[in-house]
Design goal:
alpha/beta; four-stranded parallel sheet; two-stranded antiparallel ribbon; 6 strands; 16% strand; globular
Length: 176
């Protein structure tokens, strides 16, 4: 629906239902929301086809923000999204092997980070600072040569400290 219409109204509802149902049985967090951009011909192929929100980074960015808002407003749920900085240009299953981004340009790689940047920027501009602290990011285990040639994201000071903490001003929880 979101991919076809660009409408993100169901995204908010998804977040609200997710947090309400999980909170009712004692969970205060879920590691389920994928903020990856689907790149059928340049990356993720079949890996994210059933899990990604859209091929359009702007639609993914809007929808992930709405899912977060729905979860937060329902129960101040600790909201995780994954796989920072984005699997959009990564081929294969990162649960079984370390993979490498196939992005051909820095601009192509930056499209994959847009949903995370949008979410962090939106939360940092709000007066309620608890919203920023109730956001967690799961970091990808893949290599991103345009950001760090030597280390996968989960081990990269350039990505975790440089991009995520220093440049994007992320204050929430980071996990692998």
């Amino acid at each position: 629906y979101v991919q076809q219409t660009g409408q993100t109204d169901l995204c908010y509802l998804h977040g609200a239902i997710l947090s309400k149902e999980l909170s009712s049985v004692g969970f205060n967090s879920a590691l389920s929301t994928v903020a990856d951009v689907l790149r059928m011909n340049r990356g993720t192929k079949n890996l994210l086809i059933k899990r990604a929100i859209s091929e359009d980074p702007k639609i993914v960015a809007r929808c992930v923000l709405e899912i977060y808002n729905g979860a937060y407003e329902q129960s101040q749920f600790l909201f995780y999204t994954k796989h920072f900085p984005g699997l959009g240009s990564v081929n294969g299953n990162t649960d079984t092997n370390t993979r490498r981004s196939t992005a051909r340009t820095p601009e192509e790689e930056s499209e994959n980070i847009l949903p995370y940047l949008n979410l962090i920027d939106n939360l940092s501009q709000q007066s309620d600072t608890s919203k920023e602290l109730l956001l967690g990011l799961m970091v990808s285990s893949s290599y991103y040569p345009f950001y760090d040639k030597a280390f996968p994201a989960v081990e990269s000071e350039k990505i975790l400290q440089g991009i995520l903490r220093d440049n994007m001003k992320f204050k929430g929880l980071v996990t692998s």
